Amino acid sequence: MRSRSIFKTVIFSLLPTVLLLVVIEGVLSLFGIGQPFIREPRFWSGAMKLMQPDKYTGYRMKPKYSDGPVQLNSIGLRDDELNQKADIRILSMGDSCAFGWLIDDVRQTYAKRLQQSLNEGINKAGFSTQVNVVNAGIPSFTAYQGLELYLNYLEPLARWDFMLVSFGWNENPDVELDLEFSMRNVPVENRIVRSLRDNVARRLHLYNAMESLWYRHLVKSVADPYLRAQVQYEKHYTQLVRSARQNGTRVVIMAVIIPPDAQHALAKRMRVFNDITRGIAEREGALWLDLNKEFVNLSRSIRWFDDFHYDDKGHETVARSLNAILLQPCLEKSSANMHVRSKP
Fold first, then answer.
1. What CATH class is the domain 36-342?
2. Contact 317/298 with Cβ under 8 angstroms?
3. Which phi and psi (to 5°) does residue 141 adopt?
Protein backbone atom coordinates (compact mmCIF):
# COMPACT_ATOMS: atom_id res chain seq x y z
CA MET A 1 0.00 0.00 0.00
CA ARG A 2 2.77 2.39 0.88
CA SER A 3 4.52 1.91 -2.49
CA ARG A 4 1.24 2.57 -4.30
CA SER A 5 0.80 5.76 -2.31
CA ILE A 6 4.32 6.93 -3.22
CA PHE A 7 3.63 6.14 -6.89
CA LYS A 8 0.44 8.23 -6.86
CA THR A 9 2.26 11.11 -5.17
CA VAL A 10 4.98 11.10 -7.83
CA ILE A 11 2.44 10.96 -10.67
CA PHE A 12 0.35 13.83 -9.32
CA SER A 13 3.51 15.87 -8.65
CA LEU A 14 4.68 15.46 -12.25
CA LEU A 15 1.28 16.04 -13.84
CA PRO A 16 1.32 19.88 -13.62
CA THR A 17 4.80 19.97 -15.17
CA VAL A 18 3.75 17.66 -18.00
CA LEU A 19 0.62 19.73 -18.68
CA LEU A 20 2.69 22.93 -18.71
CA LEU A 21 5.09 21.44 -21.25
CA VAL A 22 2.18 20.29 -23.42
CA VAL A 23 0.69 23.81 -23.35
CA ILE A 24 4.06 25.40 -24.22
CA GLU A 25 4.52 22.90 -27.06
CA GLY A 26 1.06 23.76 -28.40
CA VAL A 27 1.67 27.52 -28.24
CA LEU A 28 5.06 27.25 -29.99
CA SER A 29 3.51 25.04 -32.67
CA LEU A 30 0.62 27.48 -33.16
CA PHE A 31 2.99 30.41 -33.73
CA GLY A 32 5.46 28.40 -35.84
CA ILE A 33 8.31 28.71 -33.33
CA GLY A 34 10.85 25.90 -33.07
CA GLN A 35 10.35 24.32 -36.46
CA PRO A 36 12.33 21.09 -37.03
CA PHE A 37 15.97 21.68 -37.92
CA ILE A 38 15.94 20.82 -41.63
CA ARG A 39 18.08 23.41 -43.35
CA GLU A 40 20.70 22.80 -45.96
CA PRO A 41 24.20 22.92 -44.50
CA ARG A 42 26.56 25.61 -45.76
CA PHE A 43 29.61 23.39 -46.06
CA TRP A 44 31.33 24.67 -49.18
CA SER A 45 33.10 22.64 -51.79
CA GLY A 46 35.04 23.83 -54.80
CA ALA A 47 34.35 20.40 -56.27
CA MET A 48 30.54 20.41 -56.08
CA LYS A 49 30.09 18.25 -59.17
CA LEU A 50 31.83 15.49 -57.20
CA MET A 51 29.45 15.85 -54.30
CA GLN A 52 26.01 14.78 -53.15
CA PRO A 53 24.05 15.83 -50.03
CA ASP A 54 24.60 13.72 -46.95
CA LYS A 55 22.72 13.86 -43.65
CA TYR A 56 25.84 13.25 -41.57
CA THR A 57 28.63 15.14 -43.31
CA GLY A 58 26.56 17.74 -45.18
CA TYR A 59 28.17 16.61 -48.43
CA ARG A 60 30.26 13.68 -49.54
CA MET A 61 31.49 12.36 -52.88
CA LYS A 62 29.15 10.50 -55.24
CA PRO A 63 29.58 6.72 -55.47
CA LYS A 64 30.81 5.56 -58.88
CA TYR A 65 31.37 9.14 -60.07
CA SER A 66 33.65 9.42 -63.10
CA ASP A 67 35.14 12.51 -64.73
CA GLY A 68 38.44 12.27 -66.58
CA PRO A 69 41.21 11.32 -64.14
CA VAL A 70 38.83 11.22 -61.17
CA GLN A 71 37.24 7.81 -60.68
CA LEU A 72 35.30 7.08 -57.49
CA ASN A 73 34.45 3.65 -56.10
CA SER A 74 31.10 2.32 -54.84
CA ILE A 75 31.33 4.21 -51.53
CA GLY A 76 32.42 7.48 -53.11
CA LEU A 77 36.18 7.39 -52.51
CA ARG A 78 38.99 8.03 -54.97
CA ASP A 79 40.21 4.46 -54.87
CA ASP A 80 39.60 0.94 -56.09
CA GLU A 81 37.10 -1.20 -54.24
CA LEU A 82 38.21 -2.38 -50.80
CA ASN A 83 40.62 -5.32 -51.11
CA GLN A 84 38.82 -8.02 -49.14
CA LYS A 85 41.92 -10.24 -49.25
CA ALA A 86 44.22 -7.66 -47.66
CA ASP A 87 45.92 -8.74 -44.43
CA ILE A 88 46.69 -5.16 -43.36
CA ARG A 89 44.29 -2.28 -43.95
CA ILE A 90 45.30 1.36 -43.68
CA LEU A 91 42.78 4.21 -43.79
CA SER A 92 44.07 7.54 -45.13
CA MET A 93 41.76 10.39 -44.07
CA GLY A 94 42.01 14.07 -44.88
CA ASP A 95 40.99 16.84 -47.24
CA SER A 96 41.94 17.63 -50.84
CA CYS A 97 45.64 17.15 -50.07
CA ALA A 98 44.98 13.51 -49.14
CA PHE A 99 42.57 13.21 -52.07
CA GLY A 100 45.34 14.28 -54.44
CA TRP A 101 43.84 17.49 -55.84
CA LEU A 102 45.35 18.30 -59.27
CA ILE A 103 47.18 14.95 -59.30
CA ASP A 104 45.76 13.23 -62.39
CA ASP A 105 47.12 9.75 -61.76
CA VAL A 106 45.70 8.36 -58.50
CA ARG A 107 48.72 6.06 -58.28
CA GLN A 108 50.85 9.16 -57.63
CA THR A 109 48.92 10.16 -54.49
CA TYR A 110 50.68 9.40 -51.23
CA ALA A 111 48.08 6.78 -50.22
CA LYS A 112 48.70 4.65 -53.32
CA ARG A 113 52.46 5.27 -53.28
CA LEU A 114 52.53 4.11 -49.67
CA GLN A 115 50.55 0.99 -50.54
CA GLN A 116 53.03 0.12 -53.27
CA SER A 117 56.14 0.74 -51.16
CA LEU A 118 54.80 -1.24 -48.18
CA ASN A 119 53.88 -4.21 -50.34
CA GLU A 120 57.30 -4.12 -51.99
CA GLY A 121 59.06 -3.97 -48.61
CA ILE A 122 56.99 -6.81 -47.19
CA ASN A 123 57.47 -9.02 -50.25
CA LYS A 124 61.20 -8.30 -50.20
CA ALA A 125 61.29 -9.56 -46.60
CA GLY A 126 59.78 -12.86 -47.78
CA PHE A 127 56.18 -12.42 -46.65
CA SER A 128 53.08 -12.77 -48.81
CA THR A 129 51.09 -10.25 -46.77
CA GLN A 130 48.94 -7.81 -48.73
CA VAL A 131 48.51 -4.19 -47.65
CA ASN A 132 45.56 -2.08 -48.77
CA VAL A 133 45.79 1.69 -48.21
CA VAL A 134 42.36 3.25 -48.74
CA ASN A 135 42.32 6.88 -49.86
CA ALA A 136 39.45 8.50 -47.94
CA GLY A 137 40.60 12.07 -48.58
CA ILE A 138 37.71 14.34 -49.63
CA PRO A 139 38.09 17.89 -51.01
CA SER A 140 36.97 20.71 -48.69
CA PHE A 141 36.37 18.36 -45.74
CA THR A 142 36.79 19.57 -42.18
CA ALA A 143 37.71 17.55 -39.10
CA TYR A 144 34.00 17.47 -38.22
CA GLN A 145 33.10 15.94 -41.59
CA GLY A 146 35.98 13.50 -41.34
CA LEU A 147 34.72 12.32 -37.96
CA GLU A 148 31.16 11.87 -39.28
CA LEU A 149 32.49 10.05 -42.36
CA TYR A 150 34.45 7.68 -40.16
CA LEU A 151 31.68 6.96 -37.64
CA ASN A 152 28.93 6.40 -40.20
CA TYR A 153 30.67 4.92 -43.24
CA LEU A 154 34.28 3.87 -42.68
CA GLU A 155 34.36 2.42 -39.17
CA PRO A 156 31.80 -0.29 -40.06
CA LEU A 157 33.52 -1.02 -43.38
CA ALA A 158 36.58 -2.91 -42.12
CA ARG A 159 38.93 -3.58 -39.23
CA TRP A 160 41.53 -0.88 -39.76
CA ASP A 161 45.07 -1.58 -38.60
CA PHE A 162 46.31 1.99 -39.12
CA MET A 163 44.77 5.38 -39.73
CA LEU A 164 46.56 8.34 -41.33
CA VAL A 165 44.79 11.62 -40.66
CA SER A 166 45.35 15.27 -41.59
CA PHE A 167 42.75 18.08 -41.53
CA GLY A 168 43.12 21.83 -41.16
CA TRP A 169 42.89 23.95 -44.30
CA ASN A 170 39.08 24.05 -44.37
CA GLU A 171 38.30 25.13 -40.79
CA ASN A 172 36.96 28.49 -41.99
CA PRO A 173 33.59 29.56 -40.50
CA ASP A 174 30.93 30.37 -43.11
CA VAL A 175 33.32 29.45 -45.92
CA GLU A 176 34.19 25.74 -45.91
CA LEU A 177 32.90 25.20 -42.35
CA ASP A 178 29.24 25.57 -41.37
CA LEU A 179 29.92 26.22 -37.71
CA GLU A 180 26.31 26.24 -36.51
CA PHE A 181 25.50 22.99 -38.36
CA SER A 182 28.51 21.21 -36.90
CA MET A 183 27.74 22.44 -33.39
CA ARG A 184 24.05 21.52 -33.54
CA ASN A 185 24.71 18.10 -35.05
CA VAL A 186 27.21 16.85 -32.49
CA PRO A 187 28.73 13.54 -33.68
CA VAL A 188 27.25 10.80 -31.49
CA GLU A 189 28.77 7.34 -31.61
CA ASN A 190 25.78 5.64 -29.95
CA ARG A 191 23.26 5.22 -32.76
CA ILE A 192 20.31 4.82 -30.37
CA VAL A 193 21.06 8.18 -28.73
CA ARG A 194 21.50 9.80 -32.13
CA SER A 195 18.21 8.34 -33.35
CA LEU A 196 16.36 9.64 -30.28
CA ARG A 197 17.79 13.11 -30.85
CA ASP A 198 17.14 13.26 -34.59
CA ASN A 199 13.83 11.39 -34.80
CA VAL A 200 12.15 12.10 -31.46
CA ALA A 201 13.48 15.22 -29.70
CA ARG A 202 13.72 17.26 -32.91
CA ARG A 203 10.06 16.71 -33.63
CA LEU A 204 9.29 18.84 -30.56
CA HIS A 205 9.03 22.61 -31.04
CA LEU A 206 10.17 23.27 -27.47
CA TYR A 207 13.37 21.26 -27.96
CA ASN A 208 14.16 22.96 -31.27
CA ALA A 209 13.50 26.45 -29.90
CA MET A 210 15.75 25.89 -26.88
CA GLU A 211 18.46 24.27 -29.01
CA SER A 212 18.41 27.15 -31.51
CA LEU A 213 18.70 29.78 -28.80
CA TRP A 214 21.56 27.91 -27.12
CA TYR A 215 23.70 27.34 -30.20
CA ARG A 216 23.15 30.79 -31.64
CA HIS A 217 24.26 32.14 -28.27
CA LEU A 218 27.40 29.99 -28.42
CA VAL A 219 28.24 31.06 -31.95
CA LYS A 220 27.70 34.77 -31.26
CA SER A 221 29.23 34.79 -27.78
CA VAL A 222 32.74 34.74 -29.26
CA ALA A 223 33.79 37.88 -31.10
CA ASP A 224 36.10 35.92 -33.39
CA PRO A 225 34.30 32.87 -34.88
CA TYR A 226 37.71 31.37 -35.71
CA LEU A 227 38.29 30.87 -31.99
CA ARG A 228 35.07 28.87 -31.74
CA ALA A 229 36.07 26.92 -34.85
CA GLN A 230 39.43 26.20 -33.25
CA VAL A 231 37.76 24.74 -30.16
CA GLN A 232 35.50 22.60 -32.35
CA TYR A 233 38.48 21.48 -34.43
CA GLU A 234 40.34 20.17 -31.38
CA LYS A 235 37.20 18.50 -30.05
CA HIS A 236 36.34 16.67 -33.28
CA TYR A 237 39.94 15.75 -34.08
CA THR A 238 40.36 14.27 -30.60
CA GLN A 239 37.13 12.28 -30.91
CA LEU A 240 38.22 10.88 -34.28
CA VAL A 241 41.61 9.74 -32.96
CA ARG A 242 40.10 8.36 -29.76
CA SER A 243 37.38 6.44 -31.60
CA ALA A 244 39.91 4.86 -33.94
CA ARG A 245 42.25 3.85 -31.10
CA GLN A 246 39.35 2.33 -29.15
CA ASN A 247 38.81 0.07 -32.16
CA GLY A 248 42.42 -1.10 -32.00
CA THR A 249 43.63 1.16 -34.82
CA ARG A 250 47.07 2.76 -34.58
CA VAL A 251 46.85 6.41 -35.60
CA VAL A 252 49.40 8.61 -37.38
CA ILE A 253 48.50 12.31 -37.14
CA MET A 254 50.06 14.29 -39.97
CA ALA A 255 50.72 18.00 -39.62
CA VAL A 256 49.25 20.28 -42.25
CA ILE A 257 52.04 20.92 -44.75
CA ILE A 258 52.41 24.65 -45.38
CA PRO A 259 54.24 26.12 -48.39
CA PRO A 260 57.71 27.28 -47.28
CA ASP A 261 57.81 30.96 -46.31
CA ALA A 262 54.01 31.31 -46.54
CA GLN A 263 52.95 34.19 -44.29
CA HIS A 264 49.28 34.71 -45.20
CA ALA A 265 46.68 34.57 -42.41
CA LEU A 266 45.57 31.01 -43.16
CA ALA A 267 49.15 29.72 -43.08
CA LYS A 268 49.63 31.30 -39.66
CA ARG A 269 46.44 29.65 -38.44
CA MET A 270 47.67 26.27 -39.71
CA ARG A 271 50.82 26.62 -37.60
CA VAL A 272 48.55 27.06 -34.56
CA PHE A 273 46.47 24.07 -35.66
CA ASN A 274 49.62 21.98 -36.02
CA ASP A 275 50.46 22.76 -32.41
CA ILE A 276 46.95 21.59 -31.47
CA THR A 277 47.24 18.28 -33.31
CA ARG A 278 50.72 17.68 -31.89
CA GLY A 279 49.14 18.01 -28.44
CA ILE A 280 46.37 15.60 -29.42
CA ALA A 281 48.96 13.05 -30.55
CA GLU A 282 50.78 13.32 -27.23
CA ARG A 283 47.60 13.01 -25.15
CA GLU A 284 45.99 10.22 -27.16
CA GLY A 285 49.06 8.07 -27.78
CA ALA A 286 49.11 8.63 -31.56
CA LEU A 287 52.20 8.97 -33.74
CA TRP A 288 53.03 12.48 -34.93
CA LEU A 289 54.49 13.28 -38.36
CA ASP A 290 55.50 16.83 -39.27
CA LEU A 291 57.06 17.11 -42.74
CA ASN A 292 57.25 20.89 -42.95
CA LYS A 293 61.03 20.95 -42.47
CA GLU A 294 61.41 18.19 -45.04
CA PHE A 295 59.41 20.23 -47.54
CA VAL A 296 61.59 23.27 -46.83
CA ASN A 297 64.72 21.22 -47.53
CA LEU A 298 63.17 19.97 -50.78
CA SER A 299 61.67 23.30 -51.80
CA ARG A 300 63.63 23.36 -55.07
CA SER A 301 62.23 20.02 -56.22
CA ILE A 302 58.64 20.18 -54.92
CA ARG A 303 56.24 22.33 -56.91
CA TRP A 304 53.12 23.89 -55.41
CA PHE A 305 49.98 24.21 -57.55
CA ASP A 306 48.60 26.87 -55.20
CA ASP A 307 48.76 27.79 -51.49
CA PHE A 308 47.59 24.34 -50.40
CA HIS A 309 48.37 21.55 -52.89
CA TYR A 310 51.76 20.06 -53.74
CA ASP A 311 52.79 18.03 -56.78
CA ASP A 312 53.59 14.34 -57.20
CA LYS A 313 57.10 14.91 -55.81
CA GLY A 314 55.46 16.16 -52.62
CA HIS A 315 53.23 13.09 -52.48
CA GLU A 316 56.29 10.92 -52.99
CA THR A 317 57.96 12.63 -50.03
CA VAL A 318 54.93 12.05 -47.79
CA ALA A 319 54.69 8.39 -48.83
CA ARG A 320 58.40 7.80 -48.20
CA SER A 321 58.17 9.23 -44.69
CA LEU A 322 55.05 7.20 -43.90
CA ASN A 323 56.72 4.06 -45.21
CA ALA A 324 59.62 4.65 -42.80
CA ILE A 325 57.13 4.71 -39.91
CA LEU A 326 54.83 1.87 -40.95
CA LEU A 327 57.03 -0.73 -42.64
CA GLN A 328 58.40 -2.23 -39.43
CA PRO A 329 54.97 -2.59 -37.76
CA CYS A 330 53.67 -4.16 -40.97
CA LEU A 331 56.59 -6.61 -41.02
CA GLU A 332 55.91 -7.51 -37.39
CA LYS A 333 52.25 -8.12 -38.17
CA SER A 334 53.22 -10.21 -41.21
CA SER A 335 55.50 -12.33 -39.06
CA ALA A 336 52.79 -12.78 -36.43
CA ASN A 337 50.27 -13.79 -39.09
CA MET A 338 52.71 -16.33 -40.53
CA HIS A 339 53.25 -17.93 -37.12
CA VAL A 340 49.49 -18.14 -36.54
CA ARG A 341 48.93 -19.81 -39.91
CA SER A 342 51.78 -22.30 -39.36
CA LYS A 343 50.33 -23.61 -36.10
CA PRO A 344 48.84 -27.10 -36.45
1. alpha beta
2. yes
3. -75, 145
